[in-house]
Description:
Blueprint: H1 24-53, H2 59-83, H3 91-108, H4 110-132, H5 140-162, H6 171-191
Amino acid sequence: MTATPQPNPAAAPKRGFLPGDPTPRERLARIVRVDHAGEYGAKRIYEGQIAVMGKGRHGKTLRHMAEQELEHLRYFETQLNRRQVRPTLLQPLWHVTGFLLGAGTALIGERAAMACTVAVEEVIEGHYEEQLKHLGPEEGELKDSILRFQAEEVAHRDIGLANEAEQAPAYPVLSAAIKAGTRAVIWVAERV
């Protein structure tokens, strides 16, 4: 009779981690990197919208949301430096594409600009929620900041909905395309 091999506890993966999962330090670096990239992209989206619609009836609202995104960006710039995490290598691309997305949707019309805000913020709300699951009590300050930023992003989404985002031309298609692009950018910015 052959003896059944006994599992080696030292060789067993830690609970909650699978092969290929980032280490806690790598996960934290990804969180800070992607959040910095996202806030940079959001700032550029609002700058594009303000360039087109800044003197119109939504100018004050857009500037207010842009100021909040700038505050978020500054926070994550500090986190990058404090934690010695490099920003995404694709920031020059976000510089251009963020502005073009903002200006492009604003050129379609006010409702399309608001649809852009709604689509991006819906993805970001879920993205922040997922990040919060990975932050333990030792990251209380970061967690509190993300919670506050998440609440502000939800408020931006609500502003977009209140300003007829869902009545934008081809709203389902526009929204789906922006959401898919946002999810792709998140995935890339975490890693590159």
